[in-house]
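Give me the fold.
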Amino acid sequence: GIPALKNIISDTAWQLPHMQTPWVGSWLRVRELLEQNENNWIGYSDFCQICQSEGLDEKQIDILDEYLHDLGVIIHFRDIKVQDMVILKPEWATKAFYKILDTDAVKEREGILLNSELGQIWDTSIYPHDIHSKLLELMNKFELVYELPDKRSHLVAELLPSTQPEFKWDTKDNLRFYYRYEFLPAGVMTRFIVRIHQDLEKKSDGIQLCWREGAVLCREGTRAFVRVRPLEKLIEISVDGSNKKELLTIIRYHFDEINKSIKKVKIVEEIPCNCSISCPHRFDYKQLLNAEKRSKVTVDCPDSWNEVSLSLLLDGYEKKGYRIITENNTEKKSDTKESVEKDKLQPSTYILHISDIHLATKSEAQIYSTQLEADLINNLKVKKLKYLVVSGDIANRSEDGEYKAAVNFIEGLIERFDIDKSRIIIVPGNHDLNRDFSEEAYQFVPESKIPEDLPEGKCIQGPAGILFRDEDLYRQRFANFNLHFYEKVFGTQYPLDYAEQGILHKFPDDRILFLALNSCWEIDHHKPHKKRSSIHMTALSNALSEILDGEYNDWLKIAIWHHPINGPDAMKNVDFLEQLANNGFQICMHGHIHEAKRELFNYGQRGMTIVGAGTFGAPKNQQVLSIPLQYNLLALNSKKDNIIVNTRKKEKPDGAWSADSRWGDFNNPRPRYEIKLKSWI
């Protein structure tokens, strides 16, 4: 049986990632140089020098770096805390990890590792003091430990107590979700605890509520009880509170990332049947989604044989029509030398996507322009931009001087990258409506003269009367955006009539169509009105009616607006997405939330990728905590069948742009992701 076993192992190994990737001579020589190096680790700059000595450029170095890491030849994570450490001897690192796991004092403290004892645990001649923090960060990347709030110790999740502590849990009205494993690998639960430790509930003594096979989470008033049921090879998730769906989405994301790293093990997602309170049956969640795609309305419970409504089952988890799936690990690693050389011969069509610029002065515009141009030319090797998309918030207060700075910025890009002005697509953001004009549009009406039938949403209630808006003046909120920016860039006016704010940009040579929409048309200075982002249905209808004659069926269609479709700042009604999907749109682009995002909207057999750009230049006090300044560069390949979205970041306002690795494997993210396009030529 040994020869047969060898054949099985050989066949299985051949199917592993990268095993069938052709390696060129320069890659093999780099690998040999690294394996001959006597150091346990080297800096990333030294690694790049070795690659460059064999003729590799920046893109090839990035590809080879990932391959060598995935194959276990090196260990290199792109996280900023450890990105400068390229480990050449992986066994050197794993021995350090096992030293921690085998330390009796840490076991006795049920996983508490004191930073002060690392010098006694590790031989400092092999693991010097100055790299201890990096080794701990690597252990975190491998989901073994996390730093405790005191900043002086870490928790080793594998050494947590095995018994469940006492705590109160209300089982009524729980939202439940299950992962059933064909074989439940060790460490799934402890890896989850490391990943989500910031949301662990604390007991009265401040100790986090987790053990080796379970945890209790608390986030924004909603709790979750997550535990392993080992005999059933099951992970059970119960959520209770006002934001059940949101917390479950976060939990599922982390388990999905862990499960992607588990190969050759069948994992089934399950939800409980709701035909009765006591029904023990659980449905395969993905099978229910497939049934919905096939227009099924009900399914039979195999225990009671009652018909169960699909919508009632699924809507408890995600609303019908808006089953949004955040993609984080769908990239195909196919950048071999052949594809790299092909890219050189057949250059991409580049679409620069920036948002939330928030420019204030011309000098600021000059600085930002130089920084961006340097990144595009020196790092991304871009010589020409075919399209420029600006998804709102060009200014900060919609003032004349801010738009003059923005015009200078845009004109600089036009000149440097030979952009045709007709290929610039711009939509306004909420910072592009002028507060003063908004306030002037509301006229005071005393209580005695208030009309009986007040139009909804067109007045502001006060103690002695109302502020009633003048519609003509109200439209002037966007007058500065139009006069000082839009008209300066295009030579034409931005329509102030809401019904005309669905603007089509058609490019027959590339067979690409952009639809620019204003998601701020109902927003003004009044605080409750700041949450009224939406798409004007007449504007959308007018635009879509122009493309119904079949001429554009095989074009790539891209829609642009400012606000997101999910989260606290989401548009109040996103039903319009169904119309876009039904009319063949494949990509939507937005800004506003100051963080790069990627989501997938499914509508029947059609789908759209929602691309968020982050903020290009918001001041520090308006940035999302720990999220840098960002922009996207989309590269449409020569075959027109996919787009690579490159995400860039700037950590400091006066610093340089660099790759923003946030996509793919949670432990080893990449600075780009792929959008596969349906045939449209």
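The CA atoms of residues 192 and 254 lie 7 Å apart.
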